[in-house]
Amino acid sequence: MDASLPAHMRPERSFQGFILALQRFWAEQGCVILQPYDMEMGAGTFHPATTLRALGPKPWNAAYVQPSRRPKDGRYGENPNRMQHYYQFQVIMKPSPPNLQELYLKSLAAIGIDSAVHDIRFVEDDWESPTLGAWGLGWECWCDGMEVSQFTYFQQVAGFECAPVAGELTYGLERLAMYVQGVDRVYDLNFNGRDGDAKVTYGDVFLQAEREYSKHNFEVADTAMLFEQFKMAEAACRKYLDAGWKDGKREAHLMALPAYDQCIKASHVFNLLDARGVISVTERQSYILRVRELAKACGEAWIHTEAGGAA
Amino acid sequence: MPDLLLELFSEEIPARMQAKAADDLRRMVTDKLVAEGLVYEGAKAFATPRRLALTVHGIPARQPDLKTERRGPKMGAPDAAVQGFLKATGLNSLDEAKIQRDPKGDFYIALIEKPGRAAIDVLAEILPVIIRTFPWPKSMRWGARSGKPGSLNWVRPLHAITATFGLETEEPDVVPFSVDGIEAGQTTYGHRFMAPSAISVRRFEDYEAKLKAAKVILDPQARKDIIFADAKELTFAQGFELVEDQVLLDEVSGLVEWPVVMMGSFEQEYLAIPEEVIRATIRNNQKCFVVRDSKTGKLTNKFVLTANIEAADGGKIIVAGNERVIRPRLSDAKFFYETDLKTKLEDRLPKFEQIVFHEKLGTQAARIKRIEVLAAEIAPLVGADVGKATRAAHLAKADLLTEVVGEFPEVQGLMGKYYALAQGEDASVAAACEEHYKPQGPADRVPTDPVSVAVALADKLDTLVGFWAIDEKPTGSKDPYALRRAALGVIRLIAENALRLSLMKVAASALAGLSVKPADAQKLPSDLLAFFADRLKVQLREQGARHDLVDAVFALGGQDDLLMIVRRVEALGKFLESDDGKNLLAGTKRASNILSIEEKKDKRTFDGAPDAALYSLGEEKALAKAIGEVQAEASAAVAKEDFAAAMSAMAKLRPPVDAFFDKVRVNDDDPKVRENRLKLLNEIRSATRAVADFSKIQD
Fold first, then answer.
1. What is the complex's ipTM, to 2 decimals?
2. Which InterPro entries match (chain A) (predicted)?
3. Which one of A116, B440, B606, B667 is at 20 to 30 Å from B337 when CA atoms are compared?
C-alpha cells in the first residue's frame, strides 16, 4: 500500500480509494485503464475490451471497472450483500503473463490484504458463459473462506479458440471492500473515506436505486416491450453484421462493434425477462442459444477487423 | 540401482483431480519403463495442490542388450536383395553374416546385437511424451506459446519440472529433456506464502524432507491424517464431536499444502435451521466441517476450517474472516427457510404450469397430475391408503420451488418433508415427499412406508413410460434422464418390499395418462419389460448372481410380475447349484441338442404327445411317467408360487432322464420308434418349461 496516500483515499477507508488503488496497481503493470462500457451488462466480461479483445493474435492488457446488472439478484435493498447492480473490476492480459498469479497476489497486497495473516487460496472454478460461447479454466480466489475474485485463463470466446490465451481477473469490488473495511452490510461501506457529516456511504449512493430497480425488475418491467426489444436487438445485430462485410465478401469486417452492442443489449433484455419470470425453462435455453449465436457471429466479424488482428 | 525423482510443479491443481493424476503418473511412467525393458523395484506418486511427484526406485542403469537374428536372402540371390539385406541389418559385408542350412536352401542370417541404452536416455525420451499426453479430465493452454499450434496442454500452467536420476551414494543427474520451453532441472519451490524460495533437490528423500521444511506436506494421506486428527482433537477438547465427512476430507486435503486446523463459531440462532441445510451451507460453500454436541447428538454452533498457512497472528483474522463469510450464508439459509415456511406447499403448485418438464411430455404440473393418478392406482396394490398416496404425490415435488432447494439442490425431498410436517401433513405423506426419490442408486435405502412406495413407483414409472413413449431411451453410455437408475429403483422397490403387481398393467395405465400417443403404443409395455429384464440382469450380475437365469425365466413369456421373476430366478439358481439341477440341465441340453440336429435333418419338429404303445424299453416308460408326474407337480407348485417346491419336483426328473440317455438309443432303426423317442425328448424340454427355459441357461 502506498503510505503517502491521505487517509480518506486509502483502500481500507474508502470504496473509491479501493478502486483507485486497483487501477493504479494495474496501470503500473502496463494495463490501459479503461472506463466502464456505456451499456447495461451482466458482467465485466461482456465489455468488448474483454470479449472481443480476447480474440485474435494482438497483445492486449487492460483494466477497468464495469457496473454489472443482474436483475434477478435484486433484493429491494434489504439483503446485506445481494444487489442487482454492483461493480466488478476487470483485468485482462493477453497473452497471460507467466507471473499472473503473483501479480494478482500483489494486487491484493495493494488493497490491504496481507498474505501473512490471511488464508488465500485458489479453488477450482471453471468458467463458462453459455451466452458468450466462452469458457476457460481457473479458480475462485478465496480470502479466509470468502470468494474475492475469479481468475480465468480464457480458452475459447465467441466459439473461437483464444490464441494466445488471455488471463482474466474479476474482483467483486463491494465484497472485497466490505472485507477490507470490516463492514457486514454493503450499504454501510464508506464510499468517500470521510467522517462525520462529510461521510458518504454506499447506501447514500445506491440504496434508493436498489429499491427502485428491484421493483422494476421483478414487478413492473414492461415484458411486452422487452420481448419486442429482444427481437429488435437480435435483428439489428444481424443486420449490422451483414452490412459490415467489406464489399460483401467475408474477408474484412467494418462494423463488429456496433453489432456487438446489440448482442449486449439482447443479453440484458433477456436477463430482465428472466427476472420477471416470463421465460420457461425450455424457452430459457433457446434464448441463451440465440444470444450465443449473436456473440459468435460478432466474434467472427471482430477477427476480420483491423483491431481484431486481421491482416 | 538408481532412482528417479520427478516433480511437475504447476499452478493450483483442482482437488478432485489430484489423486487420479498421481496414480496416472505412476502408471504411465512405470508401464513405459517396463515396456522399455527397465524393470523397477517400486514406485510411489504424490500430489499437492501445486505439484505431482513420483519416485521410482531400483531402475537398472541400462536396458538389457537385445540379440536378434534376422534371416536374409538365399545364397546366390541377386545383388539387389543382398544389398538390401546389408543395409537393413547394418552389416558391412556378407562375411559378417552366418549361413543357415534349410531344406529350401542356404540362407544368410544376420546376428544383430542391439546394446541396451542408458536408462537416463530412455527416461529423457519417455517423460516428455507422458507429459504431453497426460490424461487430465480438463486441460488448458496459457501464455505466449498458446498463440501457436502444438503448445503444451496441462491442467493449469506448468512452471517447473524436476527430474533427477542416480544412485543414492552419488550426485544424481538431471534427466535431460524439456517440454514446451520448460527445461527439466532440480529446482522446486516451497509453500506459496511461507517458503516461496527455490529449493535445490537431489533425490526423493531429501526432496520430501526439504519440502516439509518449506511447509509442504507432500503425501496427501499425511495431510488427511493431520486434518482429521487435529479436527477431532480440537472438537473433543471442547466437549464436541466432529461430524466426519470423508468426501470433504479428501477435498480439503487437496486444497492445502500445509494444513492448519482451526475452529470458528456462528450465532446460536442459526441452529433453528434444519441441520442438513446448515451442513450443506457450511460444507458446500466453505469446505468446513460441522460439529456435534456429543451429549445431545445435535449440531452445535461451531465449525472446523482448514487453512493453508500458519498465520502471523495465530489465525485470529482467518477465523474471524471465515465466521464473517459463514454468517451471511447462514443468514441467507435461515431467511430462505423462514420464507419457505410462509407458503403452503400446495400454493406453489400453480407455478409448475409454467415449467416444462420435457418439451414432448408437457409441464411439471401435468406430470404431477399423472403421478397422482398412478399413485392412487398403485396404492391398493402396495397396501397404501389411496387418499394419502394421492396427497403425497400432489405435494411431493412442491419443494423444488422453494428457496432452500433452489440454493441447495441436494436437500430436495428432505425439505419437502420438513415443510409438509410444518404445515401439519400426515407423517406418511411428509415422509413420501422425501422418500419418493429413493432409491437413488444401488446403495441407497429403499423406502418401506407404503405411501412412499406408491409415490416412488408412480414417479419412476411415469418417467420410464414417458421417455419410452417419446423414444428417448438410454443408448450405450448415454442415459441423460437416468432411466436405468429409475428402472433399478422400481426393481428394488418391488423386490425388497415383496410387492405383487403386474408391470404391464401399470405401464399401460401410465401410458394412458400421457398426452403423447406413440405410434407403437401396443409394443411399449413389453419393450419396457425387456428393459427391466436387462436391468435385473445387471443388478444380479453386480450381486454376483447368475444373470443368465433372468433370460431363462423371461423367455417363458407373460412374465411381468417382478417379484415372482426374482423369486423364480433365486430358486432356479439354488436348484442349478445342486447335483440334481446340474445333471438335469445337462440332460435337458442334450435332449435339446439332439432334437435340433434331428429337426434340421428331417426339416420338421417333433411336437405332440408320444405314443405310449411305441415304448419298448423300461427306461422310456419310466421317463414318460416321470415327465407326466413332474410336470403336474411342478405346475401346481408354480401356481402356488412355491418355486422351491417346483424345483424339487424337477429334481425327480433327473434319474429317469439320466437312465434314458444311458440305456436308450434315440435314433432307432425303426423310424416310428425314432420319431416317438424324439417326441419324448421334446416332452422333457416342455416339462422343464414349467419353471424356466433351460435352453437359455449358460453352462
1. 0.94
2. aa-tRNA-synth_II/BPL/LPL, Gly-tRNA-synth_heterodimer, Gly-tRNA_ligase_asu
3. B440
